[in-house]
Each structure stands twice: as C-alpha cells, then as structure tokens.
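Final report, Chapter 2: Outcomes

The project's central promise was a pipeline that accepts a single protein chain and returns its three-dimensional structure in a standardized token representation, suitable for archiving and comparison. That pipeline is now operational. To close this chapter, we reproduce one record exactly as it appears in the project archive, with the input sequence first and the structure output second.
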Amino acid sequence: MAQLSVLKDQRSDCFSVMTEMPIGQYIDLVRVAHESQGALSGQRSVLGTATARRIRDRMVSDLAQGAVLPPVVIGVVLKAKDFEKVPGMDEAFLTDLLERAEQPDLSIIDGMQRTVALQAAVESQPDVASRGIRVEFWFSKDVRALVYRMLVLNTGQVPWTLDRQISVVFASMLKELQARVPEIEKLISPDAPGRRVQAAQYRFDSIVEMYLAFSLRKTAVDTKEQVSDEFSRLDFVENVDDEHFQDQFYEALSMLVNLDKSFARAVGSGQESLSQGRQIFDRQPARIGYVVALGLRAIGRPGQSKDAEEREAEMHRVADQHKAFLERLASMSPSDLLEFLRLDVLSEVLDRRSGQVGRYERSVFLEAFKVLLEAGFDVKSMEPCWRAN
C-alpha cells in the first residue's frame, strides 16, 4: 500500500483514510461484500441495463489500456478500541485491520459498478491485477455514520426499489441490531429464513421499514418507492446525521418488542379473527403505527422537529411511562389482560375497512397508539385507543 492520508470527519465522527493498493488486493478484500451486493452499500446493485453494460465494457477496455478509475469508497465498522487508534494509523495497522474485518463490517459504499469492471478486466487481462487503484476507507464506530455517508455520496444516483435492495442497504445494521435490541428473539432474513410463530420475532426488512417510518414519521412507507426518493428527503438525512437518532430508534424498537411480549400473554379460546394478544403485532401496520407514534412524540412532526435535548428528554419520559405500563400489564392475569386489550373492539374496527386495507389499518394503529402515548399509557383498557380513528 502507498502512504496513508488520514482525515477526521467531525460531523459524522468518522475517519477518511485514503490509500493506494494493487487492484488484485482490492478485489480480494471486497469479494464477499461485492457478492452480497455491497453489504451496507448505499450503492445500488449491479445495473443490468444495456447502457450500464456498455459503460462497464468501456471501463474494462480503458483499464486494459492503462486508465485510472476514480477512488472507490469502502466503509468499515470498527470496535471502539481499534477506532481510537485510527489517527495514528500506519500501513501495518491498516493491513491488520482489513485482514481482521468480517462481514457485514466491511461494505462497498461507492464503487459497485467500478468493482465489476475491475473484476472483468483482471479476468480478461491478468496483469491488470498488479496495477494500482486508490481506495478511500471510511472508518466508523457504528452503522449510523456509514448510512449517513452513503446518503451523501449516493443520493440522486440511478434509483432502485426498496423491496429488492432494502436488506442490502441496511445489511450492516443487522449485526448492530442483534446487539442493541437483545429482546428480539428471532430475526428473519434471507440468510435465516422462517416465519413469525410467537412474539418478538420479526422479518429484518419489516424492521428496516420501521426504521424509515420512525425517521420520516409517516406510516405510508411504500416499499415499491425508489429509495433515492426516500433518502433525498431532508428529514431523513438530518435524523440519520443526529448521533442520538440510532439510539432513539433502538429504544423505540425495544419498547415495541417488550410490549409485543406483554400482549402475547393474553390467549383467548374463541374462534374470532382476533383472539390472542400476539396477533396485534403480528401485523406490520401495528408495528409501523407504534414506532411512528413514538417518533412523532419524541422527534416531533415533520418540519417541526425538536432539538436534540428535547428529543432525549421526551424519549426518557416516554420510556419511564412505558416501563410502568409493562409492570402494570405483568401484574394482570392472562384473562384480565385479555379483557384489557379488548380485541373484540379492535376486530370490529378493523372489519370496517372499505378498501386500501393496509393504509386503513396503519391509520387505525397510529391513532390508537397516539392516544395511548397522550394518556401516558394510563388507560383503563385499550378500547378508547382502538376507537380513536
């Protein structure tokens, strides 16, 4: 590797480290990240359009003739002890870090198309592997900062849909999520398939949708929308830039999981469509409604966001009220809890839908949980919540 250039990004608390390495070494380094379509990568997946293929073919041809591509950008999530050593980093330490990096800690933030071209060039002309390429590493202590860098680097590029790429965009969050919200008993993902059979089990893409909804404070997060449209929204970028935002989302998610577990203790014997407490959060509209209600309360309405201190104070206040609510639910017998939940009322409300079922249900649950929060979780039963819409 060449001499390193190290700069501290004070805004996102990252280090930018620029170096040069042989193309062959770069390809070996990012092989796993590339095969998983970027890992964290705000980079879209490899484009398959005729135009994209022609551009890649031109890059391959240029590389064979000695062209130099712009630097590629790699994100690396480090442990705190390693992150502290980055300012004094030398080549030996960087090499050691990269050798120890595991997926999904290493991610292609910007350069997916160039990586494909580099691989093709090496396959067609092996001596290309010995040539140099500039690589910029972004070292961070958490995923939030890398997601922010991804937004800044990639907003406005060729769009891709959320339902195809959402797990790719937030792949690095998966590991962090498991550590920060241990109450989740099962995360269902492409690598760990399955279905929800009890409380505290969720699909990873549904959690990412909750993440977007919490930030935007909107229940209508259309998974068919282009991610670039979502990411270009100022509210989202500003929230991800807030160093406390990720913590607040994990806190909101933790509240949801614990409430899901509490509600699940209510088990009825009837044949109604809703007879068990677990069925409330079986529904993504309920989960979205809950985190959006929390987002509105803690962050504020879109365009009227609270400052950092207000957010922190409000989140602590809600968390204390939520804890007292859980203790109250825990003191109830399963039959008393079932009576408290008033699932018969909820079932009747949900059955009133006349069209656009998903949107209607999200509206019902958002209004329900807004009432619950406004009451400080101090309600005699959930009936006034279910009837709020």
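Archive annotation: The first helix runs from residue 23 to 35.
This record, like all others produced under the grant, will remain available to the consortium after the project formally closes.
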